[in-house]
Amino acid sequence: MKRWSRLLKIIWVVSQYRLDLLAGRPALPWAVRTLLLFGPWRLFPHRGLGRGERLRRTLEELGPVFIKFGQVLSTRRDLLPEDIADELAKLQDDVPPFPGQTAIAIVEEALGAPLAELFAEFNSTPIASASVAQVHAATLNSGERAVVKVVRPGIEAVIRQDLALLFILARLIRRYLADGYRLRPTEVVADYETTILDELDLQREAANTSQLKRNCAPRGLVHVPEVYWDYTRRNVFVMERIEGIPVTDVAQLQALGADLKLLAERGVDIFFTQVFKDNFFHADMHPGNVLIDASDPADPTYIGIDCAIAGSLSDSDQYYLARNLLAIFQRDYRACAQLHVECGWVPAGTKVHEFESAMRAVCEPVFEKPISEISFGQLLIYLFQTARRFNMEVQPSLILLQKTLLNIEGMGRQLYPQLDLWSTAQPFLEQWLRERYSPQGLAERLRRNAPSWLERLPQLPEAFFANQQQARDLENQGQRQQRELERLQQCLRQGQRRRGRLLIAMLLFTGAVLTAWPEGMAILTQLPPLSWALIGVGVYLLWPGPKP
Questions:
Q1: Across-strand partners of 281?
Q2: Whole-number mean pLDDT of the chain?
Q3: Which terminus of the chain has fewer Cβ atoms in its 10 Å neighbourhood, N or C?
Q4: Which residues contact residue 225 at a Cβ distance below 8 angstroms, ignoring those fewer than 6 apart?
Q5: What is the chain's Cα-based Rg?
Q6: SS3 state at 21
Q7: Which candidate, 399, 400, 420, places its Cα nearest to that of 409?
Q8: At 105, is the pLDDT very low, low, confident or very high (cuts 50, 70, 90)?
């Protein structure tokens, strides 16, 4: 019953904002077109709003799950028209909080003790409220200032219910919207399902936070909160409270005299370091998750929070991604096309010269702009769109990477509009490749893999003989199959010979009957040449064996 009431509310809100106008009507079945033409939603005015704004307002009114979905969708600029992507990017986590007493009850149940025993102070009024959880300020008994993140009660049931409806909507979009197949709505919803269900597990977020802190601490360019594991459960996460300036508050940073050029370049450096050296990157770096510590304006640093979404790449993806990026920097489209085929991002049968030509057509107009005006993230989107024409499969890890790069580049240009991401990224990638294949790099990889290889070493003789036995078994199986094939062919030949003898017997019997019957002889002698020709064709077609 709840699902149906929720569905009715969705239909009502969608009708208010006339999202039916987004559908490509010529592609719709006549029954659907008729329903759209005479449906009650036509009573609602158009409101004079653009399609992107209508979609954004619809998601805002439908609540937390749809808001979060809009945020995730806004990162897929490779799939969306620009006006819709720009509007969805405006969605913010501005969700009404749930009561503080409810949060206290959840914390006490999760940690198994009264609040007074757990914290010296706990502010029941949340300092932030998002679609999945809300955050309260607290002080530990040991004196550390902390924040307590609490998952919304009952949100998982709501999320699963709305996900089921989103999958229904995605299938309808895929089937009836003009560009529905290209938008791949079911795959987008599936990605969103994984993302949002992972966000419900705060222990996963705590583990990501701990890993990122361990990776970032030696370099000192970004500060990640300390995790208080004794107070962390699946639905409660307690961490260090950090204060900073929102990365979007450029006016305050300028007033403090912060070095914005250095800050923007450090953001790029942090991104590439996490991707290629640490192979573990914060994949949700939108402005709401980034603060700035400008206590030393000449040496500003980042503060990273909300580490629920993190990404990593396989060794081969790291290597091919670095080679591809360098090929793009150098405008070596042939190498880029070959690398896409080598790493399996496009099918092996792809014609490299056609792929190269398509990439050149996309990239050359971009490279005609001044270097500071070229959006590297946007260029990656163009390349992925081009590769999709050649049946490139969606790589989830690369989509996360693309999304993160777009966020990093966007924040960097907001801080320092003249940011030259290329001059920062290219030397980094060249150095990383040199280190990867230097004697020291190869020795380090050998050292890292040596224990695993040594563990398998005693098994090599057994594996060798097992492979030999498997090869003999396969050879014997092939011989058996060959003998069976020969037997079947012999049976076929015997059957054909029997059919031939039967046909000859039938012809002889028919001739004997006709010649023994006086009128039959008269019929045979009076047959025209065409009849004899047709009889010959019939015998030829019935005769067993292959025909030319």
A1: 311
A2: 79
A3: C
A4: 147, 209, 213, 239, 240, 241, 242, 305
A5: 35
A6: helix
A7: 420
A8: very high
User: Cα separation of 44 and 68, whole Å?
Assistant: 26
Both tokens assigned to 77: 């600029």
Q: Are 55 and 19 in contact (CB under 8 A)?
A: yes
384 Cβ contact partners less than 8 Å away, ≥ 6 residues apart = 78, 392, 398, 402
Termini Cα distance of the chain: 69
Residue 155 and residue 200 in contact, taking contact as beta carbons nearer than 8 Å: yes
Which pairs count as long-range contacts for 539-545, CB under 8 Å and 24+ apart, including other chains? 539/503, 539/507, 542/503, 543/500, 543/503, 544/495, 544/496, 544/497, 544/499, 544/500, 544/503, 545/496, 545/500
Q: What is the DSSP string of 416-429?
A: -TT--HHHHHHHHH
Give the pLDDT confidence of 385-436 residue by residue, as tens digits: 777 777 776 666 677 777 787 778 878 888 888 887 777 788 888 888 888 7
Rounded to the nearest 10 degrees, the angle between the axes of helix 260-272 and helix 396-415 is: 170
Question: Which positions are catalytic?
Answer: 284
Nearest to 319 by CA among 279, 290, 264: 279
The pLDDT of residue 463 is above 70: no
Instruction: Give pLDDT, residue 135.
Output: 94
Are the beta carbons of 365 and 382 closer than 8 angstroms?
no
Rounded-to-integer distance, Cα 116 and Cα 108, Å? 10
Q: Does the structure show a pLDDT above 90 at 149?
A: yes
73 versus 284: the higher-pLDDT residue is 284
CA dihedral (433, 216, 219, 417) in degrees, to 10, reads 80
